[in-house]
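Example record for the data management plan.
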Amino acid sequence: MSRYPITSLETLKAGGHYSMVGGPFGSKLVSRDYVDEGVPVIRGGNLPPGSRFSFDDLVFVTEEKVATDLFGNLAYPGDVVVTQRGTLGQVGLIPDDGPYQRFVVSQSQMKLTVDRSKADPLFVYYALASPTGQQEIRSRAITAGVPHINLALFQQLQVPLPPFLTQRKIGAILSAYDDLIENDNRRIGVLEEMGQRIYREWFVDFRYPGYENVPLVDSELGPIPEGWHAATLGDLVDVNAKTIRAVDTGEEIEYIDIAAVTRGVVSQTRRMLLGDAPGRARRRVADGDIIWSTVRPNLRAYALLLSPGCDCVVSTGFAVLSPRRASFAYVYALTTTDEFVEYLVGRTTGSAYPAITPSVFQGAPAIVPPTNVLQAFADAAEPLMRFASQVALQAANLRTTRDLLLPRLISGEVDVTNLDIALPEAAA
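Corresponding structural encoding:
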């Protein structure tokens, strides 16, 4: 129950609080229109769960294309973007300090431009991202065929309407958490990039300690240093060695679902009884295991799990790679390269849900260096990865706190009206 007045988006629109625009129709925007640079296009992948916006994997259209066909589908910093077809519930907020000044929304998205003198874009974003906002979106969706919601249905959504200053305070509190989480994610990215650079220098360019006195010799994988040999990933790891049945033993576990994992980050885990975990079977994971989603590998849903004594169980949609003859640092660096991802993508089957089997991981090509080189790499890279794991845990704790606060702030259960909160300068 909200302590604030509840109103519809349609009423707010009539009051001038916002305007709304959908994506282009039909053939006005298709994949062959995409180019390497120009005006970026916002797609579902740019609205990841638990984050306001992602600049990863942007595609672009030319200025000429915008002027000819897409001028009415532009979005700008401060606009709220919502998915209207496909993965309903995706909500994003284009940051004011991003590298682009305008965007095109794709056919599957729509955008709200908020009048910042009447409503706060941050509050609108969090209201739609809250559990109540998500339920409102799903309850009004058309589920026949591809789930979708049109502009008319979306405007029927009921949202709370606190006083404008209260909206800004709520937005400031929640965005402070998100800013800390984003900062942690950037730190994780830097640490992982450092590990990848060492990996590429040693095991792709073969500039490892002592390389000067070791000649290259031919192998089935091309020239490699003498004393190294070509193998498969299955020679280095066990794949899915700890699959267990769904049994109700009363044991509590931390469950990791595919939706919670992206590019090395586990955004959340769920504490539950083993018998209540989704699916017919589960896979246990241990410290140093790598998990890789077997569905749509191009999305790079993978993570390195570093938690001694972890009682974690993951979805059977993951392949679990347990290092056996090499350190987790080497296996993780190997299985997160662009070349490895391309190898997986090239071996998917199925059009609706392109997927790979565990045997694809087992057969992946791998170079095996001598033990002393592997150990030297582990000594250099494992501390970076352990630290990245600690930062990821900090981000997860922040995310949990934010998610607990979000519905309470939006509903007014936690009242900030009389709190003295520093507010950022309002954007124009």
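Summary line stored alongside the record: The chain has two domains: 6-161, 216-371.
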